[in-house]
Write a structure and sequence with these properties.
The complex is a heterodimer of chains A (about 110) and B (about 110). By secondary structure, chain A is an all-beta fold. Chain A contains no helices and 11 strands. Chain A is globular, with a radius of gyration of 13 Å. Helix content of chain B is about 0%, strand content about 55%. Chain B is built from no helices and 11 strands. The termini of chain B are far apart. In chain B, about 35% of the residues are buried. Classes of the chains: A mainly beta (about 110), B mainly beta (about 110).
């Protein structure tokens, strides 16, 4: 069966520090991968998606970037965090004929 | 621009008290409407996909319906374990997974 791993679960970072969040998927090959962010009291917002190694599409202009160095690995990065980068970050992959999104357990990022 | 509005923002129910959640959407060319359940501090869990007006899907005490402008999630005789935030989303674009989410309805079911 397929599983998705996301870490760390929580992260507290100072403004201006770098960021690296990692997500890996097991049990499937060539999945479509997604990074979403959930701000307090707001809906999930799609940040990036990838249909294959090295292929990244950005949905909103921002201080973040994404990379897909391996088929089942998706990384979210920032060189210098802003206060506005705080939120709950979720990685997901599309399965079930690409009909369903399966989410990881999320990373709660607090930028202070 | 695609928009998804969920109401109410929060709902408090007694165990066994049935109710409905609303999801109003504006999207050009609906390809799918999705319902997810999210527990605090966790990622959303897929519940249903609806594709066309008139479609209905059920899972245990949950039933989702779809019209041309809105979707309803009916919770019949809820139990405390049904407490969660329920998210509605529409597919925007050609790629599955590129979803436009509503802000969610937080449901609390008390014994």
């Amino acid at each position: 069966s397929q599983t998705i791993h996301q870490w760390p679960a929580t992260l507290v970072q100072p403004v201006g520090s770098p960021l690296s969040l990692e997500c890996t998927v097991e049990g499937t090959s060539n999945p479509n991968l997604y990074w979403y962010r959930q701000a307090a009291g707001r809906g999930l917002q799609l940040l990036f998606y990838s249909v294959g190694i090295g292929q990244i599409s950005s949905e909103v202009p921002q201080n973040l970037s994404a990379s897909r160095p391996q088929d089942r690995q998706f990384i979210l990065s920032s060189k210098k965090l802003l206060l506005s980068d705080s939120g709950f970050y979720l990685c997901a992959w599309a399965g079930g004929g690409n009909e369903k999104l399966f989410f990881g357990s999320g990373t709660q990022l607090s930028v202070l | 621009e695609d928009q998804v509005t969920q109401s109410p923002e929060a709902l408090r129910l007694q165990e066994g008290e049935s109710s409905s959640l609303n999801c109003s959407y504006t999207v050009s060319g609906l390809r799918g409407l999705f319902w997810y359940r999210q527990d605090p501090g966790k990622g959303p869990e897929f519940l249903f996909t609806l594709y066309s007006a008139g479609e209905e899907k059920e899972k245990e005490r949950l039933k989702a319906t779809l019209t041309k402008k809105e979707s309803f999630l009916h919770i019949t005789a809820p139990k405390p374990e049904d407490s969660a935030t329920y998210l509605c989303a529409v597919q925007a674009g050609d790629s599955w997974g590129k979803l436009q989410f509503g802000a969610g309805t937080q449901v609390v079911v008390t014994p």
